[in-house]
Amino acid sequence: MDRNxxxxxxRERRKxxxxxxxxxxxxxxxxxxFRSANHIYGQVIDDLTGRxxxxxSSRDKAWDGPGxxxxxxxxxxxxxxxxxxxxxxxxxxxxxxxxxxxxxxxAFADAAREGGLEF
Length: 119
Prior knowledge:
Blueprint: H1 3-21, E1 30-35, E2 40-46, E3 51-57, H2 70-86, E4 93-95, H3 104-114
Parallel strand pairs: 1-4
Antiparallel strand pairs: 1-2, 2-3
Helix pairs in contact: 2-3
């Protein structure tokens, strides 16, 4: 098994363990983050109905900044917080999706907190 596939398998294993404990309810939906090499994505999800309530990413059509660095992650986190507030969501549970909580994931979470979301 090559290195990249091995990293993905390990992340999926961590993700499964995290998702056993974290469930997005209607009163406190799940804020999940995904980062690729060039972009970052965030969604606020109600797991009971299976609906995405708000989302933001560095691939949005209106996006005009970087997506693969800490600055881009901050901007996406702020944009997601604004959209979630617009949808009437103020409390969420954070799902790091198997990624380590540092770098872009941490910047995304901190920006969402500063934008008014409560973890």
